[in-house]
Write the structure tokens for this entry.
Amino acid sequence: MIKKILSILFSIIQIYVIAQNNVQQVLNNRNEAIVSFSTKYLTKIPDFKKLSIDKIKNDTITVYITQKQYNKLVELNIPLKQEQIPSLVSNFKMFNINLKSTNEWNSYPDYSSYISLMNKFSTDFPEICKLDTIGYSVNNRLLLALKISDNVAIQEDEPAFFYTSSMHGDELTGYVLLLHLADYLLTNYDNTKIKNLINNVEIYINPLANPDGTFKTGDETVSGATRFNANGIDLNRNFPDIEDGNHPDDNEWQPETVAMMDFMKKHNFNLSMNFHGGEEVLNYPWDTFKKRHADDKWFQYICRQYVDTAHKVDANYMTVFDNGITNGYDWYSISGGRQDYVTYFLHGREVTTELSKVKLIDAEELPAFWNKNYKSLINYIDQTTYGIHGIVTNSKGSPITANIKINNYDTDSSSIFSNKKGLFYRYLQAGVYSITISAVGYISKTVDIVLENNKKTDISIQLEKSTGINDTYNTNILYPNPVNNKIYFNNNYFCNNNIEYTISNINGVIVKRYLGKKSSFNINLPAGVYIFTAKNNKKIFTKKIIIQ
Ligand SMILES: [Zn+2]
């Protein structure tokens, strides 16, 4: 009996060792492998946020690993199960433009056909389509984007929108869907709804963000595609992170990341969506921490709209989590993701969409996925035409780059800025909002605005130059300073009565506020450094005060 148990035990160990060896072999061949292990080991991994988690399901976590990460997991004695590589399970039907001139969108374009298709869109529809180069991959493949808009050669006073797919090279449903979408928009320009979008939005489409991963085994096939780029790096962990700094994955920014950051900064996208695969769900910010975005309800609203529209085609599609949508952190936390980078650092709004449970679906299924998604894809672009569309200028009509902050609402970098043409677009749920528009050297303005869902509200804000002296030396206006309790303000500084006085702490948080005309204030505040501000619609006075 003991012998039998020993022999079973021995064979289990043997299988385990073989599995580990196979992982090593896969790593040798592909620079990446997929393993799963029990979530009970997560506490053993110090920075699991850096892992390329693919999914967590029923206490099992599936991750894509590099050689370094594999060594670490082995060192930590975590029992690993080797997982199947989705891009190797079958042969994928490829599209070659030289063999067939029209794409029926039921095959994966090979690399050169992809480049040809992108060029063909712009040459076939030169009035409304332009091909733009985002940059180059590690292996010098092209990172391309189509711009679809009327007067396509110039930058118009319109919101900017961005669809991008497949930064994980083996998640390719979005690759074909976005090519299909470009074709659909361009060939349906006479449709009123499509025309309205193309005429009023600067639409950018990047179907393939990681071509080296997708064409890992050669330009002719997506079979063998990898998640990582050619340097074995997960591009969706490679962006600056709110919590974990510029290089949360301890890697340099990859050429794909740098090119994408530059491109997005240049175009100031107001709304975007990034496509992945491996689940069927829309994931909204934040990914890195538990805090909710100020626009949490609005994010839920637009995600809900996307999924509800898809459900009209297939009620069984996108049903996981909250019926097809989830907060990023609630699913699993990641560092260095694109969605948080865009939403926090660029003041844009980005959602991550997982289009199919299978990362690389059978090509024949692609038209069905198009059918489930295309109306949602169009409606999502339409969201950029709603909300507040504003312009900020000075008294001479010149544009001002200003901060637009929703009072008692914005937090964690959720306020936005007008662009160099003074234009801003802020998407909010229906409601009444108090908005403060401020810029250096100008008197801030606060306005109330009423918004409805799926409607646009235009506002035009003119800011007056601040003529007040930031008077540190003039002791006659605000005194005594330092102050114990009572401080006096000389109101001759202003010529009318509508004055707002505020005292802020050094973090910029207003701790006291008075309205009207006052010449003395009883300050009951802890000792420290504060900023005293008095302003009316013409002048502003600010001064540092020390409370003893
Ligand atoms: Zn992905």
Q: What stands out?
A: The chain has four domains: 2-83, 99-385, 390-463, 478-547. The mean pLDDT is 91. The chain is about 25% helix and 25% strand. Residues 466 and 538 are 7 Å apart (CA to CA).
